[in-house]
Design a protein that fits this description.
By secondary structure, the chain is mostly helical. It is 73% helix and 0% strand. The termini are close together.
Length: 510
């Protein structure tokens, strides 16, 4: 039976290719836009602490909400803990109610969390609100990439797979821009808008055809696929390929998890999410303004953060345009090298940067307290004049550019591409949970490491991780560009090589 399956696969792929000219992706793009509004909220809420922490640490902050070092560390890191909880919830919801409804349900904790922070009168409201927005972020991170991969045609899946990262960057940039002119409570209120809009739009979008077929709803699946591909598209061929993939799957057992078709893609996805966080991107984004203040950049910290947000958007857009041209592995190589060079530079700079004057040791979350807010730019410029004061900013821009070109969007995309269909809902939730537990521990520890050793030690750790990322990409990650989800599953089924281009020859050899 295995031989017959493998022989039929190229025929199905040839038929799919002949029907591609009749595809109309306009409604597919609308469905993807509706879903990734959840990632806009994710990006917005992730960095919410960056402009808010300096205000809650300032001398004129509301006494009921004023934070010390430990409270600020929890406010910055508890989001990741909520995201891990959201990932665990998505493990159940993805298979119980489907990807689309899981995405829509994320709006509930998001709206409640922002209302708590916007109307906060005590610290527990800020922490609980931050935790709930993290829960929403974890749910969307586990559900949206899978939904997009299952509704997208393979010819555009690479570009659309990077959309979650693109819109997350838009959300980050929107927060940085609004924080320049809007009080922090209004930042929380504004965060509710994209979540509400997402629910309204997704109510009119179809469920995943794969999900519908797996439930035995053939007519609904055909209707959904025709809506996504256009009225002139021959849905029978693609539906047959999807049904064929589903038929070869069965409920996964613990013994089956020991076979390469299951454990290889799951391990690859989990390790990629772990390494993605260990590069340090989350603490850098969460504490960006305090980091720039301590790095003695010659521009005011809040403007540095907005500049980095714009660069991040440019790099993600570049990655989206190259995803189906350069390939996943080439972008991951480029991403790893850029991050390595930038973190190495930041390590050397932070090692030679003198500690800020004052009777107490430097403190990441309290660094803005030593200087009046409107004198920060002048003080930093005087302490480190000339172009040397821009090196930390430029290095951080290169780091964000490198991350957003590869390890940011491709990690999300590959997770949705390589995970086996039968375990995709649970495994994606596992990946997100591992990712955000790592982010929580790293983000919480970052403040204390900087407090004790300065920025040098965290940047040195990030440099080492970038080297590991480079090696892991070279040894373990397959190239999935231009491959259907069925071909990717067949590649892992053969278990003979990590070079996916050989999968067809391996299949024919059988």
């Amino acid at each position: 039976m295995s031989t017959r399956v493998n022989e039929e696969t190229p025929l199905v792929n040839r038929r799919l290719t002949s029907s591609e000219s009749q595809i109309n992706n306009s409604k597919l793009f609308l469905a993807v836009f509706s879903a990734v509004l959840g990632n806009f909220s994710f990006g917005y809420s992730l960095v919410f602490s960056s402009p808010v922490l300096p205000k809650l640490k300032s001398p004129d902050a509301d006494p009921r909400l004023k934070m010390d070092t430990e409270q600020a560390a929890w406010f910055g890191s508890i989001y990741s803990l909520g995201a891990a909880a959201g990932g665990l919830g998505a493990m159940l919801l993805n298979d119980m109610i489907g990807r689309k409804l899981s995405i829509m349900m994320s709006a509930v904790p998001s709206a409640i969390g922002y209302m708590l922070m916007g109307g906060a009168s005590d610290l527990w409201m800020l922490h609980l609100g931050r935790f709930l927005t993290g829960v929403a972020g974890g749910m969307t991170a586990a559900s949206i990439p899978v939904y997009i991969s299952e509704i997208s045609h393979k010819s555009v899946r690479g570009a659309l797979g990077s959309c979650p990262q693109v819109t997350a960057v838009f959300g980050t940039l929107a927060l940085y821009a609004l924080s320049l002119v809007v009080p922090w409570r209004w930042l929380a209120i504004a965060g509710e808008v994209p979540a509400v809009l997402m629910v309204v739009l997704l109510a009119f979008m179809p469920s995943s055809p794969r999900r519908l077929l797996s439930l035995g709803r053939e007519q609904q699946a055909a209707k959904a696929l025709r809506w996504l591909r256009g009225s002139h598209y021959d849905t029978h061929i693609e539906l047959s390929a999807i049904q064929h993939s589903i038929n070869t799957q069965s409920r996964v057992t613990w013994s089956q998890l020991a076979t390469p078709i299951y454990y290889r893609p799951i391990i690859i996805s989990v390790v990629m999410r772990f390494l993605q966080q260990m590069t340090g991107v989350t603490p850098i984004l969460v504490y960006m303004e305090p980091i720039f203040a301590q790095s003695k950049v010659s521009l005011e910290a809040k403007y540095d953060a907005a500049i980095v947000g714009a660069v991040r958007l440019l790099s993600v857009a570049t990655a989206a345009s190259l995803m189906d041209r350069a390939g996943r592995k080439a972008l991951l190589y480029t991403s790893s090298m850029l991050m390595f060079l930038s973190t190495l530079t930041l390590t050397m700079i932070s090692h030679t940067t003198p500690c800020p004057p004052g009777p107490s040791p430097p403190n990441l979350t309290m660094s803005l307290d030593h200087i009046p807010h409107n004198d920060i730019g002048n003080a930093l410029e005087a302490s480190q004049p000339g172009s040397a004061g821009l090196i930390p900013l430029i290095s951080t821009m290169v780091f964000i550019f490198g991350y957003a070109m590869g390890w940011g969007p491709i990690t999300w995309l590959l997770m949705s591409e390589v995970l086996p269909l039968v375990a995709r809902g649970v495994a994606s939730g596992l990946c997100v949970t591992v990712s955000w537990l790592t982010a929580f521990m790293l983000t919480h520890a970052f403040t204390h490491l900087v407090d004790r050793y300065g920025l040098y030690v965290p940047y040195l750790c990030f440099t080492v991780v970038c080297v590991v990322c480079l090696l892991f990409n070279a040894v373990c990650i397959p190239e999935t560009r231009g491959r259907s989800l069925e071909e990717i599953e067949n590649y892992f089924r053969t278990g003979r090589t990590f070079t996916i281009r050989r999968s067809h020859s391996s299949v024919q050899a059988q």
